[in-house]
Structures are given as structure tokens and as C-alpha cells.
Amino acid sequence: MSKIWYLLKVQLLQFFGINKAIHEKNPKQKRKWIAILIGVIIGIVYLFVVSFTYSNILASVFEKVDKMELLLTLMMAVSSFTTLVLTMYKANGILFGFKDYDLLMALPMKTSLVVASRVLLLNILNGAISIIIMVPACIVYAMKVVPDITFYMLFIITLFFIPLVPIVVATCIGSVVMMISARFKYANLLNLVITFTLLVLLIGGLMNIGTGIGDITSNISVGFVEKVYDIYPLTKMYSEVIRQNNFLYFISFIGISIVSFLLYITIIGVKFKSINTNLMTKRRNGRLQMTKQTQSSPFIALYRKELKRYFTTSIYVLNTGIGIVFYTVLTFGLLFIETDKITEMIKISQVSTDLNKLLPLVVSIFIVMTCTTMSSISLEGKNLWILQSSPIPVPIICFSKIAVNLTITIPAIFVNNILILLVFQMSFIESIMLFVLPISYALYIAFMGIVVNLRFPNFDWMNEVTVVKQSVASLIAIIAGLISVIIPFAIIMTVTNINQTLFLVCCCLVLLILCMFMYGYMKKKGELIFKNS
């Protein structure tokens, strides 16, 4: 057990950059880490407020039908599903294909201990999600019901076991995907295809459940929650623990979580080395063939390099491409749903009336989720010196990275929005805005990612996950992107008698002006920052 704890402690210190922050001697860097810490705290508080608000809205519904215990049951299901989806594409980079694999395998300890430490790392990361979702729900529940002390004891204990089974299921799926893809030459590509397919099926299943909810106040116990019980039986156990303080279900819930965890690390320990070895082995063709050599401009050469690296780094694609996947799945889903039912599902009269004019902002949410540039410079890592020593201007290097981002977002905007126009009856101006506003956001988020990554680079990473998901640049870019869409949306929803079309045109102009300022920053100061990194 001490060896697992030692491995876990080292991984946590490295994963969150705590070790570097503690031993940093540069005062400027110290202030930077303090600012990051403050930003993280603000972000956590914001998520707690959002979660509390959402739980409070659901509680008002459940209170009417005298089924308050379903609040925690439903939020437990939401936490489990979120953990399942996120872990599916975290597995590659944390459990498989991580950079310090050779170092860990050289240590005198069993493979199962290494696997256990990596899965526990996933459990801690997803445990934060459970806390953010479940604790506000518990506060709302306590305010409405005023339970006894036994409830709080059971809630706190079960809280740490909620993510365990979803993590095991997700990593089992990830393990199977890795074992299949590792046998092929294009392992990363096959891994991406399988993972995205599974995500699409999960999203489609969730949408199918959602269409059957109907009138939530009268059918919630018979409809939606019953479906949740059927899909994930542990939610029924959890409901009995919360509703009746049932110790038999409590012990069963804990026991299933622990046994599934121990079985998984034992079984996957057998295949752990072979999967990672196959993933890290470079496959070459047996024959060497000379092909025609072509010459291209520096921009085209860099663009091809960036595009190739993007699609060969699975965690990079999964993290930055998930927005486009959601966007595409939902768009195709609209083809099978009548427009009247869509407005019925929204349940807000103002949104229903102005849905056509709000669609450009809805589409833009998925676009700002797709930012490949926020980590493209940091991913150069120790190879940065190659670009630094080349005679290529920094703007050309940056534009090659921006072009990759636009290659992913712009075609998706055109294809999906054409399908949207087949579903919704939109005027000529509304149709134009449906394309212009998301394209403006695509430019904005691409430039934003580059500027933020130039300002907050990280070249000392050991794992791509650290750069793509946990870096300061990625956090700032995601928050800045979402805020840039939320603010216009909030203005439209709160300000009465606003000319929405004119307002969206003004948003496009503001975004393009911001792009011009960011281009100026990239051109004037980017070279200095890039060369001194």
C-alpha cells in the first residue's frame, strides 16, 4: 500500500505542477503560480454556484411530487455519466501511452501496483467532479428535508465511491479499444475512430432518454428515473441508501465499487505492458521506396506538420474535437425531430419565439469549445529549439497553427449549418448570420489560443494530458471562449426590445476587432516571447 501511495503522490505533484510551484525561486514565476491558484479557486466557486442553482431548480420540481430523494439520485447519475465520458478519453495519456512509462516499469514493484496508482489518479481527478456536482445537491437537499446525522455520514462515505465504478467501466472500454487499436499500424487513428463512435452512441442514448421525459412534474418517477435505474442499477442502490438509510444497500454499493476496482487492476495488469509496448512501438514498412520529392512554402510545410501531429495525438483530438462531435451529432439528430417538438422541449417562451436568431450563438458555443491553438506551442516541448533556430518568421509559425484550428471548425460550420437550414425556416439575414457569427468565433478562438499559449507556455511536460487539459493556457482559452458567448446570450435574454440581428452583427465586428488586436500582439511581442521561451 505504501508503494501505491508513493507513486500516487509523485504523480499528483507532477500532474498539477505542485512540485514546480513549491520549488520555484523566480519571484515572477511565484506570482504567476499564485495568480493561477486564485483563478482555479474562482473557477471552482463558480462551478459550485452553477451546480447549486441547477440543483435548486430540480429540487423545486421534485418537491411538488414529494420525491426529494430523487434529487441526489439524479445528480449521482449525472456525476457518474460525466465521469464515464471524461474518463473514456483520459485513459489514453494517464493509463496508456504516458511519457514516464519506461521509468515506472523499471521500478522494483508489481505491474498491478502501477495500474492501481494510475487508476487512483483518475479517481482523484473525477472525485473533484463528484464533489462539485454532489455537494451543492446535498446542501439543497438538506435545506429542503433536514435529514438526521446518519444521512450525512452515509453521504460523505459514498461520495468517494461514486466515481469508482464509472472509472472502471470507462477504463475497461479504453483498455479494449487500446488492445484492438494497438495491433494495427495506424493505432492512434483507429483509437480515435472507436472512441468517438462510442461517445456518439452515448450521446445518442442520452438524447433518446431525454425525449421520453415529457411532463417532468407528473412522470418523473415512472419515466426518466426508472430508465436511469435500468441503465445503471447502482443509482437504485444509492437511492435506497439516501431514502431509507439502508445499510444493506450501503454495504452492497461500497462492496461492488471496491471489488470491481480490485478485479480490474488485477486483470488489466496482465495486459498492461503489452498494450503500452505496442502503443509506443514505431511500426515501419518492410520496404523502402523512393517517392517523388515535392517542394512547398514554409507555411504549407509547417501546416502539414501541425495537421499530422494533431491527428497522431489522440488526447489532443479528443479534448479539442469533442465540441465539433457534439455539434455534428446534435445537428444530425435535428433531422429526425420536428421543429415544434424542439421548441416544446425548450420550455421557455422567449427562446422558442427567437430560436432562429439565437441559433448562431448556440452553434458558436460548440465552436469555442474547439481550440487547438491553446496548447499547440507548448506541445513543441523540447523540440522548440528547431523552430527557434529556423529562419521562419514567428507569424508564419503561428498562422500554420491557426490554420489547423480553422481546418477543423470552418468545414464543420458549413456542413452542419446547411443541415440546420433544412430543419428551421430562417430568413435570408438569419441564414447569413448563422454562418458569419460562428466563423467570427472560429477566428477569435484560434487567435485567442495562440496569444494565451504565447503568454503562458509550458515546455517541461511529461504527458500531453498536462498541456492539453491541465495547463493555464487551456484553462484561460476555454473560459475566455465560453464567456465570449455567454455574455451576448445573456444580453439578448435580459434586454428587452433589442434588435437581435443588429446586435449579432455588432458581436461579429467586436470579434474581428479583437482578432486584429491579437494579430498585432502576436506580430510585435510574439516573436520576443517565442524566442525567449
List keywords for this structure.
533 residues, mainly alpha, single chain
Note down, in words, how this protein is organized.
The model is unreliable at 209-218 and 347-353 (pLDDT under 50). The longest helix is centred in the first third of the chain and has 38 residues, at 27-64. Helix 6 runs antiparallel to helix 8, helix 6 (111-145) crosses helix 13 (247-280) and helix 21 runs antiparallel to helix 23. This protein is mostly helical and 533 residues long. It has 25 helices and no strands.
Strand and helix layout:
Blueprint: H1 2-15, H2 18-23, H3 27-64, H4 69-94, H5 101-105, H6 111-145, H7 149-159, H8 164-181, H9 187-210, H10 216-219, H11 224-231, H12 234-244, H13 247-280, H14 298-312, H15 314-334, H16 339-346, H17 349-353, H18 355-368, H19 384-388, H20 394-423, H21 428-455, H22 464-468, H23 472-494, H24 500-524, H25 526-531
Structural class: mainly alpha
The run of helices and strands is HHHHHHHHHHHHHHHHHHHHHHHHH
Major sheet characteristics: none
Q: Tell me, briefly, the overall form.
A: globular
Residue stretches low in confidence (pLDDT < 50, at least 5 long) are 209-218, 347-353
Radius of gyration: 25 Å
Mean pLDDT: 78
Helical content (DSSP H or I, runs of 4+): over 70%
Strand share of the residues?
Answer: under 5%
In total, the number of strands is 0
